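Notes to self after the call with IL:
- keep both proteins in one doc
- input above output, always
- annotate only the second one for now

Protein 1:
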Amino acid sequence: MLKRFGPRFGCQGVYNSLRKIRQMVSQSSAFHEALEILDDFFHLMDSGRLFTLKDPDAYRRLRRRVRRALFTVLMEGRPRLENLRGLSWPYDALLRNRSYLETVARGASPAEDRLQARLFLALLPFPGQWRELLRLENRTDRHPEIVSLLAEEQRKIDAKIVKKRQKTFRLRHFCQILKVPRPPAEKGVLRIFSLPYLFRIPGLLKRISKEYVIYMEPPWGVLARHAWLRVFSDLEDPCLIGAGGPEDRRFLETQAGVVPVPLAHGDYLEEDGTVPLGAEKRFDIVFNGLYDDMPRKRHNLLLELLCRPELSRLTALFIGRGASRHVAAFRRQVGALGLENRVTVRDNLPRREVPRYLARCRMGVHLALHENVCRSIYECFRSDIPCLVSSAMAGFDFHQITPQNGVVAPDDALPAAVCRMLDHLDPFSPRKWFLDHSGCRNNSRRLNDHLKVLFERQGYPWENDIVLLGSSGANRYVDPEDYRRFRPAFHALLAVFREFPLPLAVVPE
């Protein structure tokens, strides 16, 4: 269809067609059905009529429908939810009705009602969900819905592992020792920045937590879909979970056994001294997004913006990693829209090359539906270009966007925001903001402060600070010497991993 519209009607015709298609899809999409499901569910609780169904299968079907509806509105439908109800609406309604369910679950209600109330609290993202789910999961007589959930989680983890092109990992590929343990009293600190589902193996995390306090950064944040992260809330000490977005942190604050901190991934971007400043600007806009995940990153939305009349003269650079077939598909889409002369596509650049490309751009645009922090936004700041960010994005703290470094705007205001920023770039000084407020040194110090508070609260001594964290590379040590010093501790940690049946091969250096 895009090929048919492109050459014949030009970019304006494509834009009008895409706009009409979006309007039709919006009116008839699953999003509105999901809203209706949630409205009906919240009304049942508000009216006190939830437990009149009396059919266990009806409750099971309702919970499944509500879970899917929450996923739809909080993930795929975020821009529409922002416009219609506000992004906090589902969480506010869940919070409002938690006490109603707890009263039924803990009170003198019939046994079946008490069971159904506990299942609602455990299987939906109510405040305190993980604690309720662990209680039901640890029972010897697990309810069939709990058994089904555990099986579904395992299937998803197995599918992720099967999709991994890399089947053999070194420990430093997914975790990093920040501070070595010093028996008998002082624990170490272990950062988990990838493959968090690997630690769902029964007993593995608890064994590691005997020697380490855990700091874990979920790659995509938390939201409603990651109930399996509850394993990190059931340890000897509280687990620090790095969550960039306030939405994730508010949910985590209600879970026992975890301490949310507003630091993860991109917050530790290295203050690279090789950033070329003052380069000639060739592109108006740069879009840095994974080609393997274009629906979440929303490449299509930027292409649509470029087809709008007021942005029809702008040039754009797309960079990012991805499989060759996905990059090729995107190039075909650019061609179908007749944008070859205005859009340049680069893929799989070495990280050291990214600053050189960014330096040739005037501003960045980031439109992803969800992240956990976002490295590419900070890469723009480091290269001294401001960034426009969609306000519908989950997993980023918009307090980090200031008049010094960028703009946050809802989807319908993006075109005007692009024009305004490009016409008034002089007031921005994003690199200065980055060096003053972000980067690996500033944020490693902040994480160190959070950890010291936790160690003091747990009664552990604190003799040595953590090492500097980075956001890239196989081991993420800013100073390679730190990794060499910690090698004996890595070998000891590897011995622990080998006590458990791992679905991936973990090898020494």
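Protein 2 (the one to annotate):
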Amino acid sequence: MFEHLIALFRNHGDPAYTTPLPQADARHAMGALMVRAAKADQAYLFEEINMIDKVLAERNGLNPVEAAKMRAACENLEKEMPATDAIASILKDVISAEEKEATLLALWRVVFADGVKHEQEDLVLHQIEDVLGVPADRAKQLQMQSMQ
């Protein structure tokens, strides 16, 4: 599965590329984005890992063990992922506006899980917001909602 997804990323810059990202792979790509966002400050803390597991369980109907296994797969995928804006650009074309907002909310929950606001994490999240096409005012609402 990962080889197929990585091949999709590598071929995305090709103008002849027309294969959409399969829905099952989109879930892993979004998980990998959460891992990437959590690592943006050069620290991957227990609180962030725990929040990723929680979000994966909630959004995918998984039990804790299944969520941890999915996160581990997403961690492996994150290592092979292209630039953050490239993966967000791929997701932009295959997920709904509602899913884009849910993804941003999940990402903000992950980066705020450690209780510390880091500039690097902000930059990554704002980059993803821009690529996904979520308006700045709505993105700010989602950011504030994630802190509650």
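Annotation: The mean pLDDT is 82. The two ends are 36 Å apart (CA to CA).
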